[in-house]
Design goal:
Length: 400
């Protein structure tokens, strides 16, 4: 058990009380026991999962937190592995976990509950926190935290119900913590879920002065006959891409290495844009929940991929049946200036960029041809969506 600070608990509890609310909208769900909003305290119970697919992304996420090695090749192009993140090692860990807990592969873990599944997800925001410390931008990092989990569970068609967070630091700065929690509150409001509780942990000498760590946990619900699982995907289906706000919350170990090599600072203007590098890199992750659930409700959605660590190359195939792959139309959307700068400043190969970053597309929906026409027409003015590719026979992702 970790220590909690009464002053912080009181401050954070007020945030929770002001922002959290039950979200059982449907009569069939309202028969469940009422949702009780709890003040911040310890949440340490673990529950068995029908699918432990969450671990696949967490194995990659844990790699993000390594210290960066020295740059051994100052003249060549950078890679994610150069920056201390070995995606192949993460994949090997997943392979070993699969031997102990079969069922890995999706973005969220499913637990049966009557005629529904609870869908759970957990994540952090990786070394983007380092930039928060350097820029002093703490108000939006909580949005990133919520986004990483709720965007995962919505890929199953699940509506987020509630969120829990974990905030850890060596010495609690109540004003700073309040800024972080305010971002979490904002993220929960954007995803229409309750901030149910969490933990504030003060661990002297464990973190550097002024630094903290975050993790989050989301639970949603979906009817068993409405689960989006990719099983019905066929060759000829269409890939619809929803735009990202930038780098989101993956790839920052490589971003920080590129920044160091470029000679620019976070206060310098991003080449080709009217914002600073710090502002561009700290743009909060888009929360796609309401938009995706609205699209799902109109029918025709067969699979959904949240584009995080692994980019298009590793994330899209995770929702495909065996024997199917994807062709991505490279010029079908506008790549944000931040990615162009990262690639140029780091001399990064196209394949490495596509396996590390979202490249401007944060969520991909695999839909029937008929549904794709409707989705693109409905997007007119309401939201932005692109036809970025199609499903083909074969394996993997290719770019044309």
């Amino acid at each position: 058990m970790t220590n909690t600070v009464a002053a912080a608990n009181a401050e954070i509890s007020r945030c929770v009380a002001a922002s959290s609310r039950p979200i059982f909208d449907k009569p069939t769900i309202a028969t469940q026991p009422p949702l009780v909003i709890r003040p911040y305290r310890l949440f340490s119970q673990r529950f068995p999962l029908l699918s432990l697919s969450l671990l696949e992304r967490n194995s990659m996420s844990s790699c993000r937190l390594r210290s960066l090695p020295n740059d051994s090749d100052a003249s060549g192009g950078l890679t994610y592995k150069d920056a201390g993140v070995d995606i192949d090692a993460g994949s090997e860990l997943v392979r070993r976990i699969a031997k102990m807990a079969p069922g890995i592969g999706g973005f969220g873990g499913l637990y049966p509950l009557g005629d529904s599944f609870l869908v759970a997800g957990t994540d952090g925001v990786g070394t983007k926190l380092k930039l928060a410390f350097e820029t002093g931008i703490h108000e939006t990092i909580g949005i990133d935290l919520v986004a990483m989990s709720v965007n995962d569970i919505v890929t199953s068609g699940a509506k987020p119900l509630f969120f829990l967070d974990y905030f850890a630091t060596s010495h609690l700065d109540v004003d700073l913590a309040e800024k972080v929690i305010k971002g979490i509150v904002d993220g929960c409001q954007q995803s229409d879920c309750a901030l149910l509780g969490g933990e504030t942990a003060e661990m002297p000498d464990f973190y550097a002065k002024g630094e903290y760590d975050l993790s989050g946990f989301a639970v949603g619900i979906v009817k068993k006959d409405s689960v989006i699982d990719g099983k019905n995907i066929v060759a000829g289906d269409v890939l619809i891409g929803l735009p990202s706000s930038g780098v989101h919350s993956n790839g920052f170990s490589l971003v920080r290495r590129v920044l160091a090599r470029s000679g620019l600072s976070l206060k310098d203007q991003l080449p080709g844009a009217a914002v600073t590098l710090g502002e561009a890199l700290m743009a909060p992750t888009v929360i796609y929940v309401k938009q995706v659930l609205d699209i799902i409700g109109k029918g025709g959605v067969k699979g959904i991929a949240h584009i995080t660590g692994g980019g298009f190359t590793d994330n899209i195939p995770r929702v495909f049946p065996e024997g199917l792959g994807a062709v991505i139309y490279k010029d079908s959307w506008s790549v944000p200036a931040v990615f162009k700068w990262i690639q140029q400043a780091g001399k990064i190969e196209d394949a490495e960029m596509s396996r590390t970053f979202n490249m401007g597309i944060g969520m991909v929906l695999i839909v029937s041809k008929e549904a794709s026409q409707r989705i693109l027409e409905d997007a007119n003015g309401a939201y932005t969506a692109y036809r970025i590719g199609e499903v083909v026979n074969g394996e993997g992702v290719s770019y044309h």
